[in-house]
């Protein structure tokens, strides 16, 4: 029996050093050149084969005995945010920060690679290491998949994790079924006829039309989606007009759709088009609608998440595994992998109130309890080993 936690604790100082180096030197999506070089230097030092995908992404492989293949994924990009916490390892790059824990994800994947590579003669198959760029922006996973990250050899399953500041360090969170929502950003241009503000009868007011559209869009969720199934339509921007007494020619509104079911995703998109077209035409205006295809829903395969849960119990004990009842309306590009092969995605606790590590992700004070790093490494190693066994 291999004690993966013991092995992970043996390299804890390396894990902390890697994580702090990445944290001090954050890079945004598809700009992770330094990060990528550091990963490649590590892989070369360990004698692990790799290839570059999706510009700054890396796909490496540890070859064991057999053809069965499990992939482990870590994302590598940071956020455009000023780091305002007081720490020796705070970001050195103005306006950029690892405010979502991808520095920890990269570190954990490197740690898992180091340990699994050291026991590759005991692996009943292969382990792919997927270092994904641009998770926060366009979803680097889809580009890596397109360029063959899941092929040669064919990947049978993928495991990923995300640090979570609401779960205390030493614990993990597990959610069955749908984990994250699908996203569809949209832009609507409503066209009217300009006129003097004192003579609205001579124009077609796109501001009034846009107001009606915004209110009507909310009824799609409140009156057409079952109340037991979460969905969101958020209008985030409204732009139009140049002066108080001028009715403009057009107004642009933009927002995002979030859904948790594939059928609801299709339905809400269809209804948005119908509602906007209906209102604008009935009020004598016209419109242009663009709905983008962004991140899909992230689904956990029942067998795979059970395997991860079982492996984690041996590392941290059953009492440290928290069952999450509610999915997140946020998005996660690991979803692209979950749409291709059986996948498991879980949450690694990094909260420590005694250390003041309580601040939310995507915030300027975000940090993690680094004691969680070897736990993440050990669980990833154990789950991969168990899958291949």
TrEMBL record:
Peptidase M20 dimerisation domain mapped to chain residues: 186-277
InterPro entries hit by this protein: Amidohydrolase, Bact_exopeptidase_dim_dom, Peptidase_M20, Peptidase_M20_dimer
Family annotation (Gene3D superfamilies): 3.30.70.360, Zn peptidases
Transmembrane segments: none
Record-given protein name: Amidohydrolase
Species: Clostridium omnivorum
